[in-house]
Design a protein that fits this description.
Layout (H helix, E strand, L loop, with lengths): L1 H6 L15 H29 L3 H13 L6 H12 L4 H26 L9 H14 L2 H4 L10 H10 L4 H26 L3 H7 L1 H37 L4
Length: 246
C-alpha cells in the first residue's frame, strides 16, 4: 500500500571530499546500498504480508515494532491503511495495535528491568537524567503522554527507562494501554476522514494532537482524583468521630 512506502525512510549522508575521495570509494559503497535496498524490500514485503492478515497482522506489526524489528510505517501505517478501507473495523484495528504495542513494550520493559542501567548505554546521559526526572515526577503520565506521540518520537527510551528505574508493572501497563489506545483511535478516526493522507497529517500536527489528548487525560485523571478524595474524606471524618477522646 502507498502509505507503507511513505512510512519507510532510509538514507546515508555522504560528504564530498570527506567520505568520498574518488570512484574507488563510490564502488566500495555499492554493496552497502545494495544491502540496504535488499533489507528495505524484505521489510516492506513482510509488512505487506502481515497487513493482509487484518487485525492479526496489525497486532503482529505492532508487537514487532514495539520490541524487536521496526517495520516500514509501523502500526500507525497499518491502522490508517486498513481503517481507510474498512471504516467499521477501525476499533478492532486500534485494539489489535494497542494490545500488540503493550505486549512488545512489556517485553522491552522486562529486559531493561533485568539489564539495569546497561539497557540505557546508548542513550545520552542528559537524556537519561531528563527521562528519569519525568518518571519520578509524573509517574504514569510520563509514559502515557509520550505514548500518544506519532513517530519519530523516541518512545523506546521511555520504555527502557521505565524498566531500568523500576516503574511499577501495573502502572506501566495501564499507561501504555491508555496512551496507545488514544493514539491508534485518533489515527483510525483521521483515516476515516482523510484516508491514507492521515499519516502525513498526523506527523505534521503531532504536537497539537498530543496537547489536545494530554488535556483530556489530565482532566480525566483530575476528575478521578477529585471523586476519590470526595469519597475518602467523609469516611475519614466518620472514623475520627467514632474514636473516643483521650
Amino acid at each position: 500500500m502507498p502509505v507503507l512506502q511513505r512510512g519507510w525512510s532510509c538514507g546515508l549522508t555522504l560528504s564530498a571530499g570527506k567520505s568520498l575521495n574518488g570512484k574507488g570509494n563510490i564502488l566500495a559503497l555499492l554493496p552497502v546500498f545494495v544491502g540496504l535496498k535488499a533489507v528495505q524490500s524484505s521489510l516492506v514485503g513482510l509488512a505487506r504480508w502481515l497487513l493482509a492478515l487484518g487485525p492479526l497482522g496489525v497486532f503482529s506489526i505492532s508487537l514487532l515494532d514495539s520490541a524487536f524489528v521496526p517495520l516500514p510505517g509501523g502500526p500507525d501505517a497499518a491502522v490508517i491503511a486498513l481503517s481507510a478501507v474498512k471504516h467499521e473495523f477501525m476499533p478492532v484495528y486500534a485494539l489489535a495495535a494497542t494490545l500488540g504495542s503493550a505486549l512488545g513494550s512489556v517485553l522491552l520493559y522486562l529486559l531493561a528491568r533485568r539489564g539495569g542501567i546497561r539497557a540505557l548505554r546508548g542513550v545520552r546521559p542528559e537524556t537519561r537524567e531528563r527521562v528519569e526526572g519525568l518518571l519520578g515526577r509524573y509517574d504514569m503520565m510520563a509514559i502515557m503522554l509520550p505514548g500518544v506521540l506519532p513517530p519519530p518520537f523516541p518512545f523506546k527510551v521511555f520504555i527502557l527507562s521505565a524498566g531500568v528505574f523500576k516503574l511499577k508493572m501495573p502502572r506501566f501497563i495501564s499507561a501504555i494501554l491508555i496512551g496507545r489506545a488514544a493514539r491508534f483511535l485518533i489515527e483510525g478516526i483521521l483515516a476515516i476522514e482523510f484516508g491514507d493522507e492521515a499519516l502525513a497529517l498526523l506527523k505534521q500536527q503531532g504536537i497539537k494532537v498530543l496537547i489536545a489528548v494530554g488535556c483530556v487525560l489530565l482532566m480525566w485523571i483530575g476528575l478521578k482524583y477529585y471523586r476519590q478524595r470526595t469519597r475518602v474524606a467523609p469516611a475519614l471524618a466518620v472514623d475520627e468521630a467514632s474514636q473516643p477522646g483521650e
